[in-house]
Amino acid sequence: MSNDSQPATPSIWDWSSWMRAIMMNSSLSPKTFDQPILPGWFVTNITEQNSNDPDTERAIVASQSYGHQLGRMMDAIALLIENLPETERHKDAFQAFAQVRLEIKGIKVKVAIRRLNRIAYDLATLKATKSDEYKRVAAKLRVLLDDNHPNQDKQR
User: Fold this and answer.
1) How far apart are CA 117 and CA 12, in angstroms?
2) CB neighbours of 84 closer than 8 A, spacing ≥ 6?
């Protein structure tokens, strides 16, 4: 032990000094530490700035998402358009609406296919790793996939 009043020079293994030097001087270190928590998720902030009654709006969106609300309105509008005289149905605004609705249906089908492909992959993994559990799940799925299953009409 030394009686010198001079502080000891940090050793090469002084990790806190080493990390501080890297963070302060390195061009590789991030300039901010912002990281999205839910990348790809649509997040809407409902505040007094954009709503007359944010508490009510948040409660509604918690129960019925904007997508669900819009889907219901699109279905209702499509029904109204179907009941118009044939000559009226071909107006540009209605045709554009029909095109958007068709594209949304296509997106839903693509997402469903992607989700089912993931399920198929998960089932194959289950079959390879836990055969008893796979057999149980597969039997359940076979019942649901049976065209004579009583819940079949509710699921369509």
Assistant:
1) 52
2) 94
